[in-house]
Amino acid sequence: MDAPIITIRDLVNRFGTQVVHEDLSLDVRRGEILGVVGGSGTGKSVLMRSIIGLQQPAAGAIAIEGKQLSQLSDDEAVALRRRWGVLFQRGALFSTLTVAENIQAPLREHTEIDEPLLGEIAGYKLAMVGLPPSAAPKYPVELSGGMIKRAALARALALDPSLLFLDEPTAGLDPIAASAFDALIRELRELLGLTVFLITHDLDTLFAICDRVAVLADRKVVAVAPIPELLENPHPGSGNIFEGRAVGRPQHGSSRWKPAPVMCLSAALSWCWLQPCSASSSGWRASTQAPPRISTSCSMARSPD
Questions:
Q1: What is the average pLDDT score of the chain?
Q2: What is the DSSP letter of 54?
Q3: How far apart are CA 153 and CA 302, in angstroms?
């Protein structure tokens, strides 16, 4: 079995006298979608922030790709952070930037790609998440809730990461939009080979796309297993987390599912690629292929909200 892509050992997080995590340990397997659940205040978002370097733990060790975060130089830390993308709660788009400019922000920060190519890449990423080109010049205030989540996902994918962190990605979405987002994450994982760290309270999301679920309680991870195992052998600390699953959420292929005319994901991926080019000032050039035909039969051709 491959070594875990993320290894956490004996993690401690505290704020003043309040201890959020104590001796928390967890492994995230390469290529899996790991759901992270727990009651309010169990530190799900704090755990994610610790992994991505936004929260300094009081103790413990975190390794990503075998590299201990606490032992990295500044340059090494920056290089490693380019390998993951983050979708924060409520999207966290920059309100004064357009959707295209939000997607371009990581590229401007970490690359020297020239302006025309930045615009093309933003368009490709929009297509990957099922948003039309007309969304590019819009500001976040002009977007629906589902479109905000997809635009934020496009920004998280801007640097072609191998790791994707999602914090409550379906919160606030209606059932149809939430199901569409779940399907998008699952297909992106398959096509891009992503490892997904997914914090959610949405039981339908857990049942639909998660390979394993980690349960936070009593300041640590008390159980990690596929949902059938957790249901068969519940841990006392998991309480009633898996009870009350919503019913009636429309699934892809049902009579209530209405595809929308947006670019299919597989076509977008085949169109979206860069080639080394010594003649370009950035060292890269975009594919000169014509854009794919719009498809409404593809599994990813669906309404953005």
A1: 80
A2: S
A3: 16
Q: What own/partner pairs with CB < 8 Å and gap ≥ 24 does 97-101 have?
A: 97/139, 98/136, 98/137, 98/138, 98/139, 99/126, 99/131, 99/135, 99/136, 99/137, 99/138, 99/139, 99/140, 99/143, 99/151, 99/154, 100/126, 100/136, 100/137
Is the Cβ–Cβ distance between 35 and 195 less than 8 Å?
Answer: no
Query: Which residue is associated with the tokens 């004996």?
Result: 10
Structure tokens at 253: 């292929």
**CB–CB of 39/47 below 8 Å?**
no
pLDDT band with cut points at 50, 70 and 90 for residue 1 = low
| E-state strands within the chain | 6-15, 18-28, 33-38, 59-64, 67-68, 84-87, 163-167, 195-199, 212-217, 220-225, 274-276, 284-286
* pLDDT tens, position by position, 162-200: 999 999 988 888 888 889 889 999 999 998 999 999 999
What pLDDT does 236 receive?
Answer: 65
